[in-house]
């Protein structure tokens, strides 16, 4: 029967102990295909390569990326389809009911070897000096799917291409480019800056900016991660490490309010690079250029041990001595005479810990390291849980209308901006802006103009009574814009941060942050 039933809206999966739910949008119909004889059910409209992956088969690819549109120009993902006269590109072929796919036949192996042979025909032997070495898709797939020899022995040598200038962050070696066009599609579809494209045809084809300009995007360096070869690498730390020398540590970015998931790769105690981690709810697999490269200004002259002031100098002491000294000074003052000041780039977790510490001995005297940061806000401050309404960053893609108030997400939250652009391109999202006009990557309706959300979220604000009290104990957490007249001369000052910046000069105790 073609009659619609409510059961069609209920997902197949349920979790033990959790009530099943229904969706307001009917699911796409499931179709059954066979991959190497194994039945697989997948949504209609999915690509053959997705069905193969769902069945547990790895299909090689260079141009295909699940977050970008389909290009189908590398031909590495060829598979055999029953009753098809030739292999098909699995990334560009949608699944059909009853389709029988073969991924490991002699025909498929020969086709992949042939594609790899063509790709390597003009690829330079730069592996010993290439920064992509060790994590290069072309290396890995040539070993697994390529032939053990080449039939190309051109007397005139390999094709050579002039390197392009994409700016101070992206180093280009265009001789290595295999024309997968991932960078072109990313610039158009995710970053929203249609500046990259192809020129020429056949052997004269090149990837470049159309008018010899640099990439003008706060997300541009993501093309480094997308590039399957060494054509696009990081210019600031070129030739400084090998991938197998690095140890990764998972953490969260604090340079904006998005909280992008990142991985910090270190060699010994030195930070070498910052890469994105996949989190579909927040940053997908992108990070901003600021997140990726800002560490080079923070990696040197870091505070590594507590210090105490003796005269005009700071003397190293142990953590036990430093904490004992801080505790002794705290007990000398009343709770209302202790004040905590937080800097602009302090993460919310540290703010909560500092707030709980000062609340424990009766102080609610908090300030933000900014002009008028010690005064009570004129607007009402509500707790985050009272207004959140369970909204998520990923929820932007489900919205029909989006209102931006006093913000430019392209620069303040580039990751959020990519979500807005995706919904604008795919769903026709209507965007309104209250505030200063902004150079966004999508169209919006400017409605009008208007006037430390994280601190307000957790209630890190001074009460009226404590803001009138002269503090005798001050805790500076990453606060480096503090003014001398904001610190009473008889106050004991503790500074915690990652560098000995301006705030440390007023401190009696300095703690590494």
Automatic annotation (TrEMBL):
Residues 246-302 form the 4Fe-4S Mo/W bis-MGD-type domain. Residues 29-107 form the 2Fe-2S ferredoxin-type domain. GO terms for biological process: ATP synthesis coupled electron transport. GO terms for cellular component: membrane. Residues 107-146 form the 4Fe-4S His(Cys)3-ligated-type domain. The keyword NAD applies. GO terms for molecular function: 4 iron, 4 sulfur cluster binding; metal ion binding; NADH dehydrogenase (ubiquinone) activity; oxidoreductase activity, acting on NAD(P)H. Keywords: 4Fe-4S, Iron, Iron-sulfur, Metal-binding, NAD, Translocase. It holds the Pfam family Fer2_4. InterPro entries: 2Fe-2S_ferredoxin-like_sf, 2Fe-2S_ferredoxin-type, Mopterin_OxRdtase, Mopterin_OxRdtase_4Fe-4S_dom, NADH_UbQ_OxRdtase_75kDa_su_CS, NADH_UbQ_OxRdtase_ferredoxin, NADH_UbQ_OxRdtase_Gsu, NADH_UbQ_OxRdtase_Gsu_4Fe4S-bd. Its cofactor is [2Fe-2S] cluster; [4Fe-4S] cluster. PANTHER family: NADH-UBIQUINONE OXIDOREDUCTASE 75 KDA SUBUNIT, MITOCHONDRIAL (PTHR43105:SF13), RESPIRATORY NITRATE REDUCTASE (PTHR43105). Belongs to the complex I 75 kDa subunit family. This is NADH-ubiquinone oxidoreductase 78 kDa subunit, mitochondrial. It comes from Racocetra fulgida. The lineage of its organism: Eukaryota, Fungi, Fungi incertae sedis, Mucoromycota, Glomeromycotina.
């Amino acid at each position: 029967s073609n009659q619609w039933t409510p059961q069609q809206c209920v997902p197949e999966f349920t979790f033990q102990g959790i009530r099943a739910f229904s969706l307001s949008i009917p699911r796409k119909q499931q179709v059954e295909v066979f991959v190497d004889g194994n039945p697989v059910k997948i949504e209609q409209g999915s690509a053959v390569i997705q069905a193969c992956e769902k069945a547990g088969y790895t299909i090689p690819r260079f141009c295909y990326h699940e977050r970008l549109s389909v290009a189908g120009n590398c031909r590495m993902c060829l598979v055999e389809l029953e009753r098809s006269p030739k292999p098909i590109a699995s990334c560009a072929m949608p699944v059909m009911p009853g389709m029988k796919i073969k991924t490991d036949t002699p025909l498929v192996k020969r086709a992949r070897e042939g594609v790899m042979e063509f790709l390597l025909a003009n690829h330079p032997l730069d592996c010993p000096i290439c920064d992509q070495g060790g994590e290069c898709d072309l290396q890995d797939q040539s070993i697994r799917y390529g032939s053990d020899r080449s039939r190309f022995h051109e007397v005139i040598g390999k094709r050579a291409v002039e390197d392009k200038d994409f700016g101070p962050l992206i180093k280009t070696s265009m001789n290595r480019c295999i024309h997968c066009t991932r960078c072109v599609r990313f610039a158009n579809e995710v970053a929203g800056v249609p500046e990259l494209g192809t020129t020429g045809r056949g052997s004269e084809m090149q990837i470049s900016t159309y008018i010899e300009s640099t990439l003008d995007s706060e997300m541009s360096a993501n093309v480094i991660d997308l590039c399957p070869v060494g054509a696009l690498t990081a210019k600031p730390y070129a030739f400084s490490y090998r991938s197998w020398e690095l140890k990764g540590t998972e953490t969260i970015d604090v340079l904006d309010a998005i909280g992008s998931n990142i991985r910090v790769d270190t060699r010994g105690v030195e930070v070498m690079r910052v890469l994105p981690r996949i989190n579909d709810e927040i940053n997908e697999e992108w990070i901003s250029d600021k997140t990726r490269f800002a560490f080079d200004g923070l990696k040197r002259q870091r505070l590594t041990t507590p210090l105490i002031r003796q005269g005009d100098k700071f003397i190293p002491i142990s953590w036990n001595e430093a904490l004992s000294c801080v505790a002794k000074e705290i007990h000398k003052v009343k709770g209302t005479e202790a004040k905590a000041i937080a800097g602009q780039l302090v993460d919310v977790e540290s703010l909560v810990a500092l707030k709980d510490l000062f609340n424990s001995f009766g102080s609610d005297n908090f300030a933000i390291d900014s002009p008028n940061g010690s005064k009570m806000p004129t607007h009402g401050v509500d707790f985050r849980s009272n207004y959140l309404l369970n909204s998520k960053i990923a929820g932007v893609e489900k919205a029909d209308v989006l209102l931006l108030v006093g913000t430019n997400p392209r620069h303040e939250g580039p990751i959020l901006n990519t979500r807005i652009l995706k919904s604008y391109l795919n769903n026709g999202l209507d965007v309104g802006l209250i505030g200063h006009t902004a150079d966004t990557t999508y169209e919006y309706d400017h409605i009008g103009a208007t006037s430390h959300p994280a601190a307000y979220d957790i209630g890190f604000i001074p009460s009226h009574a404590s803001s009138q009290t002269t503090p005798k104990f001050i805790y500076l957490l990453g606060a480096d814009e503090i003014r001398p007249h904001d610190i009473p001369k008889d106050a004991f000052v503790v500074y915690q941060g990652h560098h000995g910046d301006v705030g440390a000069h007023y401190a009696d105790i300095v703690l590494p942050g």
